[in-house]
Amino acid sequence: MEEKTLKNYHRWLNSNAVDEKDKEILRKMSESEIDDAFFQDIKFGTAGMRGVLGPGTNRLNVHTIKKACVGFGIYLNKHFKENVSCVISHDNRFMSREFTLECAEILNNMGITTYIFDSLRPTPELSFAVRQMKASGGIMITASHNPKEDNGFKVYDEIGCQLVPNKIKDLIEIISSLPDELLVEVPVSENKKENIILPASIDEDYCSLCETVQINPDLDKKGFKIVYTPNHGTSFVNAMKVFKDCGYEIYPVLSQCNPDPAFSGTLSPNPEDPRSYIEPIKLAKSIDADLICMTDPDGDRVGLACKNRKGEYVLLTGNESAALLLDYIIKEKKAKGTLPASSIVYNTVVSSSLGKKICDYYGVKIESLLTGFKFIGDRIHYYEQNGGPTFIFGYEESYGCLVKPFVRDKDGIQAILLYCELALYYQKHGLTLDEAYEKLGERFGQHKAKLFNIYFKGSEGKKEMDSLMHEIQNNPFTSLLDKKVSIIENYSVLSRYNLIDKSTSAIENLPSCNLMKFIFEDGSNISIRPSGTEPKCKFYVEVVDKSLENAGKKCDILYKELLRILRIN
User: Fold this and answer.
1) What angle do CA 201, 229, 264 make, to 5 degrees?
2) pLDDT over 70 for what percent of the chain?
3) Tens digits of residue pLDDT in 385-428
4) What is the CA 324 to chain-centroid distance, rounded?
5) 144 catalytic, yes or no?
6) 408 phi, psi to nearest 5 deg
7) Torsion angle of alpha carbons 322, 325, 329, 335, nearest 10°?
8) In Å, how far are 384, 411, 569 from 377, measured between CA atoms?
9) Is residue 535 within 8 Å of 455, Cβ to Cβ?
10) What is the C-alpha separation between 330 and 393, in angstroms, rounded?
11) Distance between CA atoms of 420 and 410, rounded to whole angstroms?
12) How buried is residue 309: exposed, middle or buried, by Cβ count under 10 Å (0-12/13-18/19+)?
C-alpha cells in the first residue's frame, strides 16, 4: 500500500472531525478496502463527483460533499456578483436529503439563496427549476443508475446545463486550492441568505411542458397497455400525472414505486441491465401489456421492452430506441409541416452510426459530440444565441434523450411519453417496435451496437486502466479478424488518421478526452474510453450487417478478439 494512502487513512482515524461511528468503520477495513477508500481524493470530473458512500477521501460523505459545495459556492459568488442563488434537488438514495440540507446551509452561510423541493425530484426537473427560477446554478445529489452503495454531486450552470469543461476547469481549480476535506471551512458572509421551498407550480409547469412533446396526441389509446416502473426513484409522481393527462392505460410495478434507497424490489436500477426488467416483465405477462417502460432512479434515462410478434418481451438498446424515435420525429414533423427549415439533431461520438444515416436521408443536420449530455445542452444554447439551426432531438446511446429544450439535460418523462406514442403509432400500422427497427435496417443496413464493461478497482486497477489506454493510443490495432480499420480517431490529441490514404486531419470543435475510436472499412466501429463515473473501461462495439442476428453475434466475436489482442483476461 502506498505511503500516501496510509497517511490519509491515519489522518482520518486520528481526526476530531471524524465521528466515532465512521472511525469504527475505518478500524474494521481490510487492506484492500483502505486502499480503495484512501488511494486518491474522490475525483471531481466533468460530471461532478460520484462514488461509494462512506468514510474516506475517495468516498462520498459529509466532508467531501462540504468541500465540493464550498468550492461551488466560491465559484457562484465569483461569477455572479448580485442576487446569487442555487436550486438543489436530490434522488432517493441514502444520505441524499441530508446532503441537500447540508449544501443549502453551506451556501446560505456564504450569502447564496437556495431553493429546494419538499422531497426528492428528478434530475431534469432540477434543470428546469434552475431555468424557471433564473438561478445562478444548481446542484443535483444523485448517483443516477449506479448501485445502491453510491451517491453523487452534480453541478449546473445558469441555463440548467451541467458545467462544460471551460466552466468546470475554474471550479476544479477552486476546489483544488481549498484545504483538505477535514479542514475546509465555510467562508461566512455578513449577509446570510435563506433556504426556500419551491412552489408546487414548478411541478405543474414542468409536467405541462412535458406533455407538449406529443406529435400525434389523438391516437386511439384504447386497449394499449403500458407497464411502468420508476425503479424506486424520483419519477413516479410526475410520470403518472403525465400518463393520466395524456390518456394512457398505465400499470405501475407497485413493488418498485416507493422511493427506497436500498432498491429492495429490483436486482438493478439500471435500464441498461436486463435484471431491471424481471419484475416489469412478470407484470406485463400477467396483463398482456404492449410495452414496458422505465426511468432510472434520478429520472433522466429511460429503458424499453416491447412485446414482439411471438408475444415475448424483448429489450431495446438505447441506440435502437433512439434511432426509432429520431426517424419518427423527423418523418411525422415533415408530414405535418412542423419540421423547422433548418433543424439539428445531436448525438455522441460513441452513438450508433445509424443516427447519421437517418438524418442524412431526411436532409437534417446532425452533430456528434463527446459523451456527457452537458455538451448537447451547451450546444443548444450556443445555436439559440447565434440564430439556429433549431434543435429537434438529442440523444446518447446510454438511454438518455431530450425532445424539447425547456430542460437542458436528459429527460426521462419527455422520453417515455414519446416512446409510448411511438409504440402505439407502429401498433396502429401493424408493427411491433422490434419489427419497426428491422424495417429501418432494410433501408440503412442492420445496425447492432453493444456495450461491454471491464472494472478496474482500487489504486492498482486505476494503473491498469491507465496503462491499457496508453497502449491502445500508442499501439493502435489496424485490423480485427477479417475487418480492416480505415480510420483511427484519437480524441486525447483530437487527431483522425486515415489508413487508406495515409492522411491525418484534426478533429474540430470538440474538447480533448480519453477516447479512441476505430472505424472499419465496412462501417463497423469500436470505441474505447474510461467511464467518467465508475472505475471501469467501456467498449462500444457496433457491427453493420445484412442480418440483425448476425450483426449481434459478430459484436461478441469482435469484442472477444479485441480482448485477446489487448491481452485482457
Assistant:
1) 110
2) 100
3) 999 999 999 999 989 999 999 999 999 999 999 999 999 999 99
4) 20
5) yes
6) -120, 35
7) 140
8) 11, 12, 39
9) yes
10) 9
11) 17
12) exposed
Report yes or no on whether pTM surpasses 0.70: yes
Q: Could you report the per-residue pLDDT of 349-383, keeping only the tens digit for each?
A: 999 999 999 999 999 999 999 999 999 999 999 99
The DSSP bridge partners found for residue 345 are: 366, 393
CA distances from 538 to 520, 533, 534 (A): 19, 11, 10
CA separation, residue 89 to residues 116, 247, 553 (Å): 6, 29, 42
Helix ranges (DSSP H) in 450-547: 458-474
Which of 85, 127, 136, 144 is catalytic? The answer is: 144
CB atoms within 10 A of CB 247: 13
Cell of 12: 482520518
How many whole angstroms separate alpha carbon 78 and alpha carbon 361? 47
H or E segment at 197? Answer: strand 195-197
The grid cell for 384 is 439559440
How many angstroms separate the CA atoms of 408 and 137, rounded?
13
Nearest to 352 by CA among 541, 479, 549, 548: 541
The runs of H, that is alpha helices, within 184-224 are 201-211
Q: What is the CA radius of gyration of the chain?
A: 24
Beta strands at 291-295 and 302-307: parallel, antiparallel or unpaired: antiparallel
Q: Are 103 and 69 in contact (CB under 8 A)?
A: yes
DSSP sequence for 488-500: EEETTTTEEEETT
